[in-house]
């Protein structure tokens, strides 16, 4: 590891130290930032960050909708799911989850209470968002899974939308709060 760092430092010094006969070259102006979301960095040559449109998605049933992210995809995406039900009785509940490949991206649930009732005969929509960084050689299935109790699901099933996000260069981040004195 030290050898690599030393070699990189030497290469950098050699590239920046001008020789006596080397003319000075002015750097070109920085290119304007594109307005479109950026794809993956050069480290991921051969990968793209395509739009995942409605054509990549299908409703399986009133409880599941799936979308397929194509092979050789790298980038950040925002996944948005929703489900609609109409309450049949007091105490109706909703639950929605997003699964990316074999990884759960989270769940949301609605459990009405006195402050937020869900009267019978009223339709409610539950929503869930999940931000993911994708790097896949194979097609990757995304699922929206919806359930309710004491309610009737919309026959159209849950919705699932996948939107490209700009690449921000962060591969991973974790936060922790150490013990505070």
Question: How would you characterize this protein structure?
Answer:
- The chain is mainly beta.
- It is 8% helix and 42% strand.
- It has one helix and nine strands; from the N terminus they run αβββββββββ.
- It is flat and about 55 Å long.
- Mean pLDDT is 82; it is low at 1-25.
Briefly summarize what is shown:
By secondary structure, the protein is mainly beta. Helices cover 8% and strands 42% of the residues. The strands form 2 sheets. It has a 5-stranded antiparallel beta sheet, with no helix packed on it. Strands 3, 6, 8 and 9 form a 4-stranded antiparallel beta sheet that branches.
Strand order of the largest sheet: 1-2-7-4-5
What is the molecular shape? flat
- Mean pLDDT, to the nearest integer, reads 82
List low-pLDDT spans. 1-25
What is the terminal separation in angstroms? 37 Å
Q: What summary fits the major beta sheet?
A: 5 strands, antiparallel
The class by helix and strand makeup works out as mainly beta
Kindly state the number of beta strands: 9
* Residue fraction in strands: 35-45%
What percent of residues adopt helix (DSSP H or I)? Answer: under 10%
Helix/strand order, N-terminal first:
HEEEEEEEEE
Please, how many helices?
A: 1
The Rg value, from CA coordinates, equals: 25 Å
Sequence-ordered SSE layout with sheet pairings:
Blueprint: H1 2-16, E1 57-61, E2 64-69, E3 73-87, E4 93-100, E5 103-110, E6 123-136, E7 140-149, E8 151-153, E9 159-165
Antiparallel strand pairs: 1-2, 2-7, 3-6, 3-8, 3-9, 4-5, 4-7
